[in-house]
Amino acid sequence: DTGVSQDPRHKITKRGQNVTFRCDPISEHNRLYWYRQTLGQGPEFLTYFQNEAQLEKSRLLSDRFSAERPKGSFSTLEIQRTEQGDSAMYLCASSAQGSGNTEAFFGQGTRLTVV
Amino acid sequence: RKEVEQDPGPFNVPEGATVAFNCTYSNSASQSFFWYRQDCRKEPKLLMSVYSSGNEDGRFTAQLNRASQYISLLIRDSKLSDSATYLCVGGGYNKLIFGAGTRLAVHP
Fold this sequence. Notes:
The complex is a heterodimer.
Chain A: E1 5-7, E2 10-13, E3 19-24, E4 31-37, E5 44-50, E6 53-57, E7 65-68, E8 75-79, E9 88-95, E10 105-106, E11 110-114
Parallel strand pairs in A: 2-11
Antiparallel strand pairs in A: 1-3, 3-8, 4-5, 4-9, 5-6, 7-8, 9-10, 9-11
Chain B: E1 4-6, E2 11-14, E3 19-25, E4 32-38, E5 45-49, E6 55-57, E7 60-65, E8 70-75, E9 84-92, E10 95-98, E11 102-107
Parallel strand pairs in B: 2-11
Antiparallel strand pairs in B: 1-3, 3-8, 4-5, 4-9, 6-7, 7-8, 9-10, 9-11
């Protein structure tokens, strides 16, 4: 499968625990995005990487959230001290650098449930 | 005010109907526009890009009006399989902003 891959697909955790999600983008894509989506809402932008550099970060990304893309390939999103309000679908997308419209392709997401 | 706004619907239409969705965006610096389709509990999938000149892909036509800052999607000859949520997207390469989506239900 050459699409965007996310792991795990589902995660149930107790409040206060830390969780880490992984995203493997399409191999030739240097742009990577993280989004969060709750029921009935569209995806909310969290952060953007170009290669290994984190160039854009939403104010939604509190100090409990951190994202990395150390070698410009896969990325991780960590949530520390999880809260029930963190329960959501976390989506990763990637796109290729180029002129004009550069479409982003999504992975299947990681569904987080904080109990 | 949200950066990208859509009518949440739902739009309930019979098979064969033509249905149109509109979307407005507030950031005049937005450069890239798309329509995505999202099925229940699935990831968003790109339906089509939206260009200033307008573009068509089979039964789907997208238009962009930069002066009024709105985007439209027209679906002709609706199929049952078109039932989904349609997400309007605007932004730049560093941040794509999604609307909350418009739900479409096509019935026999």
